[in-house]
Amino acid sequence: MKRLIGSNQEIAQLLYMEQLELSQQNSDVEELVEDIIAHVRTGGDEALRHYSAKFDKIDLDELQVSQDLIDQAFDKVDQDVLAALKNAKGNIESYHCQQLEKGFEDQPSDGVLRGQLIRPIERVGVYVPGGTAAYPSSVLMNVIPAKIAGVKEIIMITPPQKEFVPAILVAAKLAGVDKIFQVGGAQGIAALAYGTESIPKVDKITGPGNIFVATAKKQVFGIVGIDMIAGPSEIGIIADESANPAYVAADLLSQAEHDILARAILVTNSEKLADAVEVELEQQLQTLEREAIARPSIEKNGRIILAEDVDSMFELMNLVAPEHLEIAMNHAYDYLDKVENAGSIFLGHYTSEPIGDYYAGTNHVLPTTATSRFSSALGVHDFIKRIQYTQYSKAAIHAAEKDITSLAYAEGLQAHARAIEVRNDRN
Amino acid sequence: MKRLIGSNQEIAQLLYMEQLELSQQNSDVEELVEDIIAHVRTGGDEALRHYSAKFDKIDLDELQVSQDLIDQAFDKVDQDVLAALKNAKGNIESYHCQQLEKGFEDQPSDGVLRGQLIRPIERVGVYVPGGTAAYPSSVLMNVIPAKIAGVKEIIMITPPQKEFVPAILVAAKLAGVDKIFQVGGAQGIAALAYGTESIPKVDKITGPGNIFVATAKKQVFGIVGIDMIAGPSEIGIIADESANPAYVAADLLSQAEHDILARAILVTNSEKLADAVEVELEQQLQTLEREAIARPSIEKNGRIILAEDVDSMFELMNLVAPEHLEIAMNHAYDYLDKVENAGSIFLGHYTSEPIGDYYAGTNHVLPTTATSRFSSALGVHDFIKRIQYTQYSKAAIHAAEKDITSLAYAEGLQAHARAIEVRNDRN
After folding, report:
1. How sure is the predictor about B12, in pLDDT bands with cuts at 50, 70 and 90?
2. C or N terminus of chain B, fewer CB within 10 Å?
3. Which residues pair with A156 in a beta bridge?
4. A385 to B379: CB separation less than 8 angstroms, yes or no
């Protein structure tokens, strides 16, 4: 891995500029996606069938995936995978239930009532990629928080395939998806945003996808809500001399195998550890199935930074604001206070990042490209709305009249003042 | 106002299409804004001075607004306005404090610890328009929730002016703004997103602005967080025969005076009320200072819909998902359960919408153009991050190994499985 030298500010700035470049999207796609969305808006189901034949080379009769097919998936799925999905589901549920928000109400003065209602978003669409990027774990991560929030209907879409991955259909059923449609790409996103004869219009779309899906999500944002546009995945590991180089290397590689553009960063105050991790990386790479992805990812985008001390390691990592943060130190929990920016934190030598991808119950849909400075993991809060309410009695509005009208007149908004004054008995 | 007839679904769809048109942005602006942002990124303060001379016709020496100027504003400001700002601040604080979230932690099984940290966003930028759109109330609404969230530094920017509106500087000081810079437009947004020699780079930008500001916010989204891109303001009033036509008309006009594009919608099951409101509208318009704005707004964009019954009124309004919703009925509180989509609700005959604009303490930065289907009023939650954390002991990861590796292999991600297996004593 490339080693970087400089002040934390300089290194963080450099890493950020590189990261932005890695997450650059192809703007040629924009126009094509615009056309596809416009076509689906007017053409509905027929447009979807057209694109399925064109892009997926499949002639679709029924757009909806039948209950039979879903039932069959339960027979076909590997039984260890089924058991693991059920256990993962339990953990994701028990973690996310803790995110449920309650409304509130107060009576700050006589005749005044204020509050906040929590309402679930009514209908949500979840995109699930096809082929090798079809991850049943992502189905659970997107659907379960929506279900806990109380979303009334969850629609899943996924590209048409000769044969669906059974674990995908199983995960959808376990998590509580209401309907599954076989439509992918920008055309699928358009169908969710605007609705067609078969596919109901949703209020929010979540889930990962390729450049066409990501571009389409951006374009329909505002018509519907979206979760986020994820860049390449990242891991940042803070490790000191107590860390096991084999563990650290394995965790860096688990990130690198995702994508040539994925980024693995090691920050350490131990040169000895840095050297040992590099030896381990090479050894582990040699027998890795996805070496063709992981090696160029590590060599091009992997970075090692030697820090002076513990505080400096955390200062740098807060500037980097990584998607995944591992703290490979003894008593890692005690360092939580030092973390300001990260999507998800993994504490200590045994908490390998893939635990979070699959199992612990925390969400694996996380902010990338330093956006953890201002955004968070997908959660129940992404599937609710907070609605304010206020009630003033006649006496209360009279008591507030002078203050409100002073401000309204100061802002030059006479009709605002009048709406208060008209309720006064003088009128 | 124009009266609409049809099914709730049809009317809602029509209103939505009209609303989208009202909020259409000018795409010619895109390129100009791109140029300005690129220039500020490379040129820093000098670029800001260039644009100030060009657009604002002011040669700037110091970009920062001095403490002296802020102190003087307290002498110049109208004392009734100062008192009203202080009272409004108290109400906004006491409402928003109730939105503060706590983290959580659980131990779902032996050796497993999971939790969620709440961290404030570090540095926030607030845009405040100049001229007649400089609203001190908006300063309070944007800054106070950030302050309650614990944001460490709040930077306000506002276009340079020969003389600042004293109430704006006073509101900034009262709310807890740390630094004020006199820079506006797209150049100001660029300065906040990328930083210059004088202006620190922020993590999130909030606050309303003209088309240049809105376009710039869209373009820097991802580099920084943003609040929302607001469309024209809207009010939806549900009223029955118990409503006072003079009150209803005054409230419709308080929305209409904002902007020719603003939209006022009345849904009622009483034809008598509908007729009486129209008479009142005409009477009140004749003496309104901003008649030139309010009249075309009401005539072009105002809508009255006659509904069959109470349930139908709420069904339609939930489809419309208005920014502001008034329930002008007796026992209005009892109808809260029927509301699914709205930014802020005003209950009963005396709770005029401007109470929320200025005073009650609820936020007036609200989702427009039916986006209350999936988003909420600005609040403390917009200025925090939720950071997940997990800790597994050696025994706990061994217990989870089979499940995690089953899923990793099923997804074809061997390095993910290995990161778990390497921690097993067998290795």
Report:
1. confident
2. C
3. A126, A180
4. no
Contact list in B for residue A339 (CB cut-off 8 A) is 117, 119, 387
Task: Write out the H or E segment, with its range, that includes residue A294.
Answer: helix A291-296
pLDDT at B25: 61
Question: Is B168:B132 a contact under the CB 8 Å cutoff?
Answer: no
Task: Select from B91, B377, B394 the Cβ nearest to the Cβ of A386.
Answer: B377
Determine which of B406, B424, B425 to mutate to test the interface with A (most A C-beta atoms within 10 Å).
Answer: B406
Split at pLDDT 50, 70, 90, the class of A295 is very high
Contact B373 A121 (CB under 8 A): yes
**Distance between A361 CA and the closest CA of chain B, angstroms:** 8
For the annotated binding site of B for substrate, the residues are: 233, 255, 258, 324, 357, 411, 416
pLDDT at B61: 87
Average pLDDT, chain A: 94
Euclidean distance between CA atoms A411 and B137, whole angstroms: 9
Reply yes or no on whether B323 is catalytic.
yes
Give yes or no: B324 in active site: yes
Token readout for B68 is 């002296």
Q: How many A/B residue pairs have CB atoms within 8 Å?
A: 385
pLDDT more than 90, % of chain B = 87
Per residue in A171-200, pLDDT (tens digit) is 999 999 999 999 999 999 999 999 999 999
pLDDT of residue B3: 87
**In degrees, to the nearest 5, what angle opens at C-alpha B198 toward C-alphas B195 and B204?**
35
The H or E element containing residue A67 is: helix A67-76
Which of the pair, B288 or A30, is modelled with greater confidence?
Answer: B288
For residue B111, what are the CA distances in angstroms to A90, B106, B390, B393, B427? 17, 11, 11, 5, 21
Per-residue pLDDT at A323 = 97
What is the token pair recorded at B27?
A: 């795409």
In the block, which residue shows the tokens 């604009």?
B357
Q: Kindly list the distances between the CA atom of residue A323 and the CA atoms of A209, A326, A368, in Å, as whole numbers in the listed order.
A: 18, 10, 5
Quick: pLDDT tens for A372-395.
999 999 999 999 999 999 999 999
3-state DSSP helix/strand/coil % of chain A, to nearest 5 = 50, 15, 35
The rounded distance, in Å, linking the Cα atoms of A125 and A111 is 42
Please give the backbone phi and psi of residue B263, each rounded to the nearest 5 degrees, phi first.
-130, 130
Q: Which of B39, B280, B315, B324 is catalytic?
A: B324
Distance CA A233, CA A197 (A): 36
Say how far apart CA A401 and CA A423 lie, in whole Å: 10
Q: Which are the contacts of A382, defined by CB distance < 8 A and separation ≥ 6? A: A145, A149, A204, A206, A227
Q: Residue B384 pLDDT more than 80?
A: yes
Write the CB contacts of B238 (distance below 8 Å, at least 6 apart in sequence).
B267, B268, B313, B314, B317, B325, B326, B327, B328, B329, B335
At residue B74 the predicted structure's pLDDT band, cuts being 50, 70 and 90, is very high
- The distance of B288 to chain A (nearest Cα, Å) reads 7
For residue range A397-418, what is the model confidence (pLDDT) as tens digits? 999 999 999 999 999 999 999 9
CA distance A237 to chain B (A): 14
Domains located in chain A, CATH noted:
2-23+231-361 (3.40.50.1980), 29-226 (3.40.50.1980), 393-421 (no CATH)
* Interface probe, candidates B374, B384, B409, chain A, greatest A C-beta count within 10 A: B374
